[in-house]
Amino acid sequence: MMKPYVFITRKLSNEAIQPLMDIAEVHMWNEEEKAVPREVLLDEVKKADALLTMLSEKIDKELLDAAPKLKVIANLAVGFDNIDVEYANQKGIAVCNTPDVLTDTTADLTFALLLATARKVVEAAEFVKNGEWKSWSPLLLAGHDVHHKTIGIVGMGKIGEAVAKRATGFEMDILYHNRSRNVMAEERIGCSYATFDEVIENSDFIVCLTPLTEETRGLFNQESFKKMKKSAVFINVSRGPVVDEEALYQVLVDGEIAAAGLDVFATEPVDAGHPLLTLPNVVALPHIGSSSTETRVAMMELCCKNIELVLSNKQPKTLVNKEWELSVK
Fold first, then answer.
1. CA distance 188 to 178
2. H helices of the chain, where?
3. CA-based R_g, the chain, Å
4. What pLDDT, on the 0 to 100 scale, is given for residue 10?
5. Distance separating the N- and C-terminal Cα atoms of the chain
6. 88-129 pLDDT per residue, tens
7. Residue 42 backbone phi and psi in degrees, to 5
8. Which residues are known to be catalytic?
9. Is 98 within 8 Å of 112 (Cβ atoms)?
10. What gap in Å lies between CA 141 and CA 121, rounded to an integer?
């Protein structure tokens, strides 16, 4: 009997994908840092029963129409805005993601980015390495206190709640905005629900953790940035297109807000000549929110398990398109 064909769009460790290799013919794009070319992916999906994808791959109508055998797409991320989920559902393809396993790791990175931006950690480290530290002075690289300040979290999902929990250790007041109130988080952590405008107007640190949707695209624009305090620090660990980057650059240059910490950009990898990267009050990271060894391995294993379950005609652990779940019961 012919084994199912699985294509993996980035080089992963053999240890992580061994369970798939035991049950399927597994082919993998053999590059860690370079995305699979579109033409290669279009060719591979013609014979694929399953795809293990990254956020860098656009799984659109064209690609799905080229995949007559495809049963499951396992995305190595919580987000899935790179996939046309609605069309995949129409074609009976299960779409899976990797929630939960990366919650605490991403929350750790979010708070690390907040601290680094507020206290000018990256700028100070470069200051020392470049031999610029000549003497001590009272306001040398003085940043902003984090303790006892107000943090405003836009997007109070599991990661937002984990960030809020960390903020309690700094005795911060916690505001949040979400499509719906998270009453459980309010009771567990002591955070307060507020409108979007109330969050951005009253917070010292505004942390964006919202998913990318048509409603959130460009949510942080010139108008919203100008409502923030001049001392506000903006942190984005969600998706780049949630932010109007030209507007962010301008408010930072004009001193309308104090600083920004960014783990994501509208176009990734971000070009080294991007205007935001020229500013000393911007801390930029290469989309490493969930990037710890333990968590990335757990994400790989969950993707493999989801594929294995679907290929065995069983329910996957983390299904995005719930309609598919109903259709196979």
1. 16
2. 14-23, 38-44, 61-65, 85-90, 103-118, 121-129, 158-168, 183-189, 196-202, 222-226, 245-253, 293-311, 322-327
3. 22
4. 96
5. 26
6. 999 999 999 999 999 999 999 999 999 999 999 999 999 999
7. -60, -35
8. 239, 268, 287
9. no
10. 9
